[in-house]
Specification:
The structure is a single chain. By secondary structure, the chain is of the alpha/beta class. Helix content is 29%, strand content 28%. The strands form four sheets. It has a seven-stranded mixed sheet. It has a two-stranded antiparallel ribbon with strand order 2-3. Strands 7-13 form a two-stranded antiparallel ribbon.
Length: 249
């Protein structure tokens, strides 16, 4: 099974909001008098699930990220790097560049079960990908891992029907009755092809691609880890909030 799995971590953003002298994916998170960069948390979740090959999608400036993770052997995995091409995107996107970043690794992920997580997030429990993989069955093309949030305007909120099937992604709503957002995803080869075809057709918004896939008949399921939490480190306010949460754990 492990050779059929591949991890996918997009890390091609510039991280200009934080203004750090190094990639934001290397921001040090201190716990129990030890530190590791924030992007190692999602990688550790993947290796805990038995994923042996992980792909980072980077831009041409991320030399320090490559220097830290290297070939992956220190982390009990093999790591590949894909440089996302600079492209001009059509129209406005609420998730700029994400779909293109994921599709940049098409030549490595096609035909495999993909586990995708963001490089600047911390998810608990650490077995989130293991739970997603366990829920993956031939009848489901995509498994969304759900987390509660009080900041729906930042995330893709998930609407489900009475049979616990995902029927819609409501992206970054200002007001909503929905309580759960997707934090990471496991998907089958059928969705990889759908993503690839969508990006080639000029669809750049990942939330739109997810909703189009649902409308086209791809089957979406979800898992919600018990006592799950999701921390996004996109701004200094979120870093301060992360420090508070980690002190309370």
């Amino acid at each position: 099974m492990s050779e059929e799995l591949i991890g996918l971590i997009p890390a091609a953003g510039k991280g200009v909001r934080l203004g750090l002298p190094y990639p934001k994916e290397l921001y040090p998170v201190i716990r129990d008098n030890h530190f590791k960069p924030v992007s190692q948390f999602v990688l550790d979740c993947m290796t805990e699930a038995g994923i042996k090959h992980i792909v980072f999608v980077i831009n041409e400036t991320k030399h320090q990220l490559i220097g830290y993770f290297g070939n992956g052997h220190r982390f009990d995995c093999d790591i590949s790097y894909v440089v996302q091409d600079r492209t001009r995107r059509r129209g406005e996107s609420t998730s700029p560049g994400l779909a293109q970043a994921l599709d940049s690794a098409y030549h490595l992920i096609k035909g495999k079960t993909v586990c995708f997580g963001m490089a600047d997030t911390i998810m608990n429990p650490s077995n989130v990908f293991a739970q997603a993989i366990e829920a993956t069955v031939p009848t489901l093309d995509v498994i969304l891992v759900l987390f509660p949030t009080e900041r729906p305007e930042k995330f893709g909120m998930v609407r489900m029907d009475r049979e616990e099937r995902v029927v819609e992604i409501v992206d970054k709503p200002r007001v909503t009755e929905l309580e759960d957002m997707w934090g990471c995803i496991a998907w089958q080869p059928r969705f990889t092809e759908f993503l690839h075809d969508s990006v080639r057709a000029g669809v750049g918004d990942f939330a739109i691609i997810l909703n189009n896939a649902i409308a086209e008949g791809l089957n979406f399921g979800a898992v919600k880890p018990l006592a799950g939490s999701y921390i996004d480190l996109g701004t200094y306010d979120e870093i301060i909030e992360m420090d508070r949460i980690l002190r309370e754990q």
